[in-house]
Specification:
The complex is a heterodimer of chains A (246) and B (68). By secondary structure, chain A is an all-alpha fold. Chain A has one domain. In chain A, strands 1-2 form a two-stranded antiparallel sheet. In chain A, helix 2 runs parallel beside helix 7. Chain A is globular, with a radius of gyration of 20 Å. By secondary structure, chain B is mainly α. Chain B has one domain. Chain B is 85% helix and 0% strand. The radius of gyration of chain B is 27 Å and the shape is rod-shaped. Classes of the chains: A mainly alpha (246), B mainly alpha (68).
């Protein structure tokens, strides 16, 4: 076997992932700062005023990144939870656990900024339309995942129950994404689509993409920080943790 | 740039409450979350250190007992 080949499975153990995560965190915070500064600069100073929504449209620079991340984090969380369920690996379940609160926060921010955008543009903070309701369900799925894991004392059983909930909840993600096509909703359709490209001014799109990258890097940084705490909490009786705190 | 003054920037064309209400809550949330995670990390580390100290004291006192 070639010695250049990195043994990725080595990092599947909490013991070797703990220091690796510690080394990665500062890099992700650095990337967050760079993308955030660039995104805010373009969002506030380069992107033009919208013809229809005036300056109110600038909420898009936090609303869309938060919404995208709320859905993306859920998929990643369900992936790790499912992997943990299938392979019975400890670290996968810890990763899922570390992602849930950040995902819940993104879903909350999506709903909050959406409400503040809806009020001036639609005249209401909230309507029970397909897009908004399915995003609210996503928020509840995160809360349910966290609460279910917290309610079961045995961590391995908590992982299994949480994983099943997370996997069943995946069905909600395409519902959120396609809700604006499947039903008549007040929410506008996708501004950016893989097949049709973008319907926005180029600078607006760049601002939005940079902010999305900033939110992405933020989520990775904070999830890695949380997974380190979870590793210590759950492996506290193992020998390596006892030696790690010396 | 479309802003002629600082006041105009903060007014956001009449949408100040909505735009700044969105950005401010995002900022607060994304500052608080890492701080809470840091606190969680500090707590588990402190608890592990206490446990280690307790174990050291226990084995230490055992040795004293044995030496008597």
């Amino acid at each position: 076997m070639s010695s250049r080949l990195i043994n990725w499975f080595r990092y599947a153990s909490p013991q070797s992932f703990y220091p690796l995560a510690g080394r990665m965190i500062p890099w992700f915070w650095g990337l967050t700062a760079i993308f955030l500064i660039a995104g805010l600069w373009i969002g506030f100073f380069v992107a033009p005023t919208d013809a229809q929504q005036g300056e109110g449209y600038r909420i898009i620079f936090v609303h869309v990144p938060a919404s995208w991340m709320s859905m993306f984090i859920y998929l990643v969380m369900a992936f790790w939870a499912g992997l943990g369920l299938a392979l019975n690996t400890r670290l996968s379940a810890m990763m899922a656990q570390a992602l849930a609160p950040t995902g819940a926060l993104m879903a909350f921010l999506s709903l909050w900024t959406g409400a503040l955008w809806g009020k001036p543009m639609w005249g209401t903070y909230w309507v029970w339309d397909a897009r908004l309701t399915s995003e609210l369900i996503l928020f509840f799925l995160y809360i349910g995942f966290i609460a279910l894991q917290a309610a079961i004392d045995d961590p391995r059983r908590a992982d299994k129950a949480g994983a099943i909930l997370a996997l069943v909840g995946v069905v909600n993600i395409p519902i959120i994404y396609f809700s604006v096509q499947w039903w008549n909703t007040l929410h506008q359709g996708a501004s950016v689509s893989i097949t049709k490209g973008s319907s926005m001014a180029e600078t607006m799109l760049w601002g939005m993409l940079l902010m999305a990258l900033a939110f992405w890097m933020y989520s990775i940084a904070v999830a890695l920080m949380r997974v380190r705490a979870i590793i210590l909490e759950r492996e506290r009786h193992s020998e390596w943790v006892k030696h790690a705190v010396e | 740039m479309q802003w002629n003054s600082v006041g105009e920037f903060f007014a956001m064309g009449g949408y100040a409450v909505y735009v700044w209400g969105s950005f401010a809550v995002c900022l607060v949330a994304m500052v608080l979350e890492p701080l809470l995670v840091c606190r969680r990390q500090r707590r588990i580390l402190a608890s592990l250190r206490r446990e280690r100290l307790a174990e050291a004291l226990e084995t230490g006192s055992d040795e004293i007992q044995e030496n008597r």
